[in-house]
Design brief:
This protein has one domain. The protein is 25% helix and 22% strand. The protein contains five helices and seven strands, in the order βαβαββαβββαα. A four-stranded mixed beta sheet has the order 2-6-5-4.
């Protein structure tokens, strides 16, 4: 399966260093974890939530990155309250039970946030994302037909 991520070009290592220092939505500081999405569009949508209101003000060194893993994600039980999800993920990270865990996305419940555990024994097969340049300004430009269809809405 492909795991997708939008990030700055300097943050393509799969070491979870940012989460160690700051924590992450589902994990406390001190634990490395790398967040991915189940598809490229969801990765863009999630990253968009953290961008400036004007896409032209977004960083210019963004990349869309991915890795391919042959691991089935361990699913976080559905319908857990967020504190229980955080507890589950923290235990999962400590026990190194699997390479990837899946949490139903709060942004788009049809997709998953995929958590990559850099301390899992299989993680050493992956050192960095494969990437291509990505620009929010280009991605979110005004569609050419907006004036035509927007007027009738």
């Amino acid at each position: 399966m492909k795991l997708w991520r939008v990030t700055r070009s300097a943050h393509t290592a799969l070491d979870g260093a940012g989460a160690i220092e700051h924590g992450a939505r589902y994990s406390p500081p001190g634990f490395p974890v790398v967040h991915f999405a189940s598809d490229a569009a969801l990765a863009v949508l999630i990253a968009l939530r953290y961008q400036p209101a004007d896409p032209a003000d977004a960083a210019t060194d963004m990349v869309l990155g991915w890795i391919e893993v042959d691991a089935e994600p361990e699913r976080v039980p559905a319908n857990l309250a967020e504190p229980a999800v955080r507890s589950w993920v923290t235990e999962w990270l400590m026990q190194r039970r699997s390479l990837v865990a899946a949490v139903t996305s709060k942004v788009l419940p049809e997709g998953d946030v995929l958590l990559f555990n850099p301390r899992h024994p299989d993680a050493s097969r992956f050192d960095a994302l494969r990437t291509r340049p990505f620009s929010f300004a280009e991605c979110l430009h005004r569609p050419p037909m907006q004036a035509v269809y927007g007027a009738s809405a």
